[in-house]
Here is the input.
Amino acid sequence: AQRVTQPEKLLSVFKGAPVELKCNYSYSGSPELFWYVQYSRQRLQLLLRHISRESIKGFTADLNKGETSFHLKKPFAQEEDSAMYYCALRINNAGNMLTFGGGTRLMVKP
Amino acid sequence: DAGVTQSPTHLIKTRGQQVTLRCSPKSGHDTVSWYQQALGQGPQFIFQYYEEEERQRGNFPDRFSGHQFPNYSSELNVNALLLGDSALYLCASSLLLGPGQYFGPGTRLTVL
Here is the structure.
């Protein structure tokens, strides 16, 4: 069965510092990977997906199939980036079921 | 469009009772998924409904059941509640193979 692991429960950085939120997955095939974000008192929302290969709010994530990782990166953290971040996996052609990691809380200090 | 809506916002039940949670999908979406999010954990997939049928199911017991109506709205039913069923229940809507899921605000269920 597929699994998503986010090794850090909490990541604390200063404003302007680089950020890397780690995500590792286990699945023998070729899954689709997503990052979801939940800001304080807001609902869970899609941040980006690996297929799009886009940068959203300065965040990027590259799928590394060799290391089975999908780390989320931003070169200069902003205070408004403080939130819960969840990495999720979807198996292609298997509906829209998502398997989530446990989440990482990012705190950006002034 | 209000997006995905869920009701009620909060619910308190006692062990052994039954509960029904409701979800209205985002306009234009035909697929509804339900997730359970325990405190401090990521969401766990319960099941997914499409064309009024359960299409996929996660590792949850038969006490968890659902329904999808012709207007695509959905209900999640949990029978014989246990303390461990206390969690935030999230509904998400999408197109069946759409690019992502849109989540509702959740229903916080507390079982005493």
Summary: Chain A has no helices and eleven strands. Residues 37 and 97 of chain A are 17 Å apart (CA to CA). The interface with chain B takes residues 4, 6, 9, 34, 36, 43-46, 49, 51-52, 86, 88, 93-103 of chain A (CB under 8 Å).
